[in-house]
Every structure is written in structure tokens, then in C-alpha cells.
Amino acid sequence: MSDILNVPEIFGSDVFNEATMQQRLRSDTYRAWKDCIATGSQLPLDVANDIAEGMKIWATEKGATHYTHWFQPMTGITAEKHDSFISPTGDGRVIMEFSGKELVRGEPDASSFPSGGLRATFEARGYTAWDPTACAFVKDGSLYIPTCFFSYTGESLDKKTPLLRSIEEVSREAVRILRLFGDMETRRVVCSVGAEQEYFLLPKDLYAQREDLRLTGRTLFGAQPPKGQELDDHYFGTIRTRVSSFMKDLDEQLWRLGILSKTKHNEGAPCQHELAPIYTNANTACDDNQLIMMIMKKCAAKHNLVCLLHEKPFAGVNGSGKHNNWSLATDSGKNLFSPGKTPSQNAQFLVFLAAFIQGIDEYQDFLRCTVASAGNDHRLGGGEAPPAIVSIFLGDELDGVVRSIIDGTNYTEPAKSLLRIGVDVLPAIPKDTTDRNRTSPLAFTGNKFEFRMLGSSQSIAGPNIALNTIMAEELGRFADALEKAENFDEALQKLVCQALTDHSRIIFSGNGYSDAWKEEAARRGLSNLSSTAEALPAYVCDKNVELVTRHGIFTENEFRARHTIHLEAYNKIVNIEARTMVDMAVHQILPAALHYTRTLCDSVAGKERLGAPCRAETTLIRSLSYHTDALYDAVEALKKALSILPKADPETLAAKYHNRVIPAMQALRAEADILEELTDKSYWPYPTYSDLLFY
Ligand code: ADP
Ligand code: MG
Q: Which atom of ligand 1 lies closest to the CA of 326?
């Protein structure tokens, strides 16, 4: 019976969480820490020293010998550098030491993380600072301390700092609105996030045989297998034994780290799965999602599997995304996107809803840009993931409410037909019971918005920074208007009605995958930024720069640096993929096709001596020869496309990669995939889609 897992007992056992702190720290230290969290003030050094000592004792009892400042540079993944606790005593022995100074501040030699020009080489140092609102934990023999990462000049070089800033901003503006509705208790508004993570699992031995998977995380070649996902026999299907033992192991590791892993199931594509945790505050959710991705990879290796987090590992089968469920709640846990039971609660709900709708419409391009990447370009608009056009799905009931508020303004007899929003008159809003629209990029699902455009490998920080900042902006504007109003009810009515009327174009309930929607969206003036190269220039438009700087989320330099980094990442990824294709085509595909052709030619020669018919061989030889020539030409064309890339700014270069290199890659792949279909399998140099997906 010893292998029965006592989940409540192990849950969070590797985390220096609040309960552990309370238990392990002196009560005045614990209280000082709590105060700092509540007020956002700096921790006095003596308190930091006490916490560091408590952490060290706890961590070494858990087997830790090292500590690391864990941070989230702009690569989208996390980084760590480990220092041991040892300190010499002068007589050849050591003791384990960890000071408050080491806890709160680090100085990793981090000159090779992308900085988008924020950091010149002469001031290459980056600094890390403890984020006391996130919990430290022990993993693989090290004490992990979540930190922010910034430059010598104090500019943020990471994803955590702007996220924390955006969490503060939206809280501040939301509290202003709550005060107007008579809520005097709420001190903070919390941003809640639940991120559903999709991923693929492949057998390690097959993965190892494919250079494209190893170098780029996706297949760059591969003919379609005879069977795809058309039978829908994988979605929610029985989980393979190897996979379920992986999932069991994964859950245990995540639970030990206090991560609320809740749901696991097979996804639509063969070999595709999903993990959903229970939602938590945005900062923790972001840390947790990074840990989930990291531990998925490590844990898969232990089970002789490889976890692919790429957005589109296989052409022709569903890609992987990440659904970011987002809402706002008071510090006492009241969800602000929950339609209430009383007219007054509903009026408040409608203010938040109207602010959201107005903000998403005004800043649709900003939100779109936060999920622009080379990998995600294969999904958005690909007819399986949401389109690249941002729109909001509200569901029938809420749609009806919004419509009647908008229409009401046009009626001549307001008293009779106007749906009034004033705090005493609005009728109860029924809870939505309609089916959710899976094609919508941003769906209201009862008490939260589900943002579905995120790619599976991306950090969830980007879109949550955008959602919080956009929301802070609109709530702030609403609060400005309402605080000044002489008649609150009237001002409220006007404000909500105006916002919904002006921005209803962003609301869409139909099929987001259809061409008709593309046309309709264009008529509505919605932006359709269908690729990273097209999207990113819009990221740094004046309106967005003003938004993020006004709220202190980014300085203009920090914001522009991110734009550069995203473009550079895109350019590098496409470049690596293109060069990998050339390499595989020249060194693997072409030789395999030629080798098989020679065998066929030998056969023809032998048969001709006997006068035996050889129509099969000669037909195949002709096809193979035609397509090997075409492959050769396609390789040359791709090499040429790469060689004439100008030395230009990253934005110009991205356009060239998009317009010249990617089409040449697609042409090369088409020829290679035809050759795969013509060639004897025993000659083919790497596992096919059938091998990989139906092992
Ligand atoms: P699905 O979208 O697959 O139907 P659910 O609606 O149950 O699944 O929830 C998906 C995710 O949304 C889960 O991570 C869940 O914890 C999270 N979630 C639920 N309520 C909220 C909320 N108020 N704010 C943010 N996330 C939430
Ligand atoms: Mg979902």
C-alpha cells in the first residue's frame, strides 16, 4: 500500500509557502514579510536575513545544496544559475550559509540574454531581485528563488516585472470603480489566471532520428499519413500506459511544487494531450506555467518520451495552444465578471464588461502582437485555432443584454423600452447556458474570459500584461468620468451605453474560421494581422506606446526593446528552420531518392537482359527523376533566398523572411514530401508521420 499517494500531504511540500513561513519563521519576521507584501514596501535587511536563514535550513533539510535566482528573461523561458550554500571556515571545512543580501539580490553574468539594445556590452551585467510575492521552492537539489531581472540602468529585462506592474495598475483602477459602487472594504483587486497547456508526446528514439525535430521542435518535412485525426478517436480517448505513467509522475512533481494540476486528457490530434491547473493569481500562474513546461520536458525524458511544446509540430494535424482564462476578483474573492443577483451588482458587472469590450476593441492590435511568433504563425488563422482577427464572443444571453442596451438609445420613448443600467433598475442577467464558440479568440465563459490565441510554447506573461493594462486604462477612464458625475445613475447609463455602442464591432458570435468572417471583419474595420511580420510593426504604434508608458508598465525603451527582441527571435527561428531544411534535403532526402532510383535502374538493366517487363520501375524512375530535379532546384532557390537577405533592421528583415524565405521553404517541402511518397520506406532517412503519430 506504500505507493498510494497522499496528495494533501505532499501538496506544496517542496514550497516555502505561507504556511511553511508561518511555521518556520519568527512571528515578527513573518509579520514583517506579510506587511511588505500588503503594502508593496521594501523588506528591511534584518528581516531578509531572518527569512534567508529560515529558507536555508528548510531547503537543506529537503536536500538542497544550492540556491538559484530563477528569472524569466525575454527568451520566453526561464533561466537559472546555481550557487552552493558552502562557505569556508578557514580550517579546511565548510558551513552552509545564505544571507539576506543573497536572497534579495543577485548578479548573474547574464550578458547573453536578449536585451533588444537595452544593455550595451560595457554594462552587460544584469541584476536579479527577489519577488517576495512568489514562493521559493526546492527542485533538483536547489532552492529556487523567483526573481525579477533588470539592467544596470534599472530597465526591466524580463517578463515578470511588467506583469507585476500591470497587476498593480489594474488593481488600483478597479478599486476606484468599486468605491463608486459603495465598496469601501476591498483593498486590492486580484487578477486570476488559469492556463490550459497543450502538448505532444513522442517516443524518444523516433524523435532522435529526426534532425528537424531536434533542431527546431517541429517537423519541417513529412508526407501526410493515410490516417489523420478524422476519426476523432484520440480526443478524450483512453490514455496509453506509457503516457499515463508519465502523467502520474508529472502530477506528483507538480503537486509537490504546489501547482494545482487538475485536469488531464487526450487532445484532438494523435499524441496530443492537455493539462489544466486550477486558476490562481496571475503572477503565480505565470511562474507555475513556466514550471509546468519545464517539468513536462524533464519528466517526459524519464519515461523515454519527448514533450513537444511547439505550436505546430506536424502539418495537417492540430497544433497546440494555451487557453488563458482571465478574470478579476476582489481580495475577498468576489469575481468582478460574475453577473450578480441584484441590479446594483449587475450595473457594476456591466461597467467591467463595457470597459473590457471597449479596451479590446481599441487595443486589438496590441493584444494580437503579444502572441506573434514564428511558431504561432502556423496556428492563428489556420482553420483550427482562432483566427488572427481579435473578436469577443459573449454568448446568446449576454449578447441580448448588450444589444438591448445599445438599441435602447435609439428609442424615442426611453422610459418604456430602454434597458436601464442605473443601479436600481437593471434586471438580473441570466447565466449563460449556450454552447461556447470554440472558434472565438476571446470568449466569455460565465465569469471569465478565455483568451485562446496563445501558442503552447509562449509565456503567458505577454497577453496578461496586455489584458491588465488595457483594463486598467479603460477602468481609469470610466472612473474619471463617474467620479465627477453629478448624477451617478445617469452618467453610468450614458457611459456603458456609449462604450457598447462605439465598440460593438468587436463582438462576434459566428464561425471565426469562415472566409465570410474575414470579409465581415474587414468591413467592420477590425485588424487582421495574419503573420508575425505583419503584426509586430503595429506593436509599437504611438497608441500602444502611450498606453504602456502612461501606466508605467514599460518605459518607451523597454517597450521598443521587446519589439526588437520579438522580431529578432522570429528572424532567427525562420533562419534556423530554413538552414535545417537545406541540410536535410542535401544530406538525407536527395541521397535517399537517388539511391532508390539507382536500385530501380539496376533492376531495369537486369530485367532488360531477360526481356522482362519493367513498366513499374521505369515509371517510378521518371517520377523520381523529375522530383529529385525539382527538389534540387528548390534547395538552390531556398539557398538563394537566404543569401540575398539584406543587412537591414529586424523589421525589414522579418518581412523578407516572411515574403521570400518561407515560400521557398514551402516549395522545398512540397517536393520532399512527394519524394517520400515515391520512395521505398527502407531507403527513407527518418521516421514518417505514420511512424511518429501512430507508434
Ligand atoms: P474548459 O475551458 O476546458 O471548459 P473550465 O471552464 O473548467 O474548462 O476551466 C478552464 C480553466 O479556467 C481552468 O484552469 C480553471 O481553473 C480556470 N478558471 C475557472 N474560473 C476562473 C476564473 N474566475 N478566472 C480565471 N480562470 C478561471
Ligand atoms: Mg478551455
A: 25
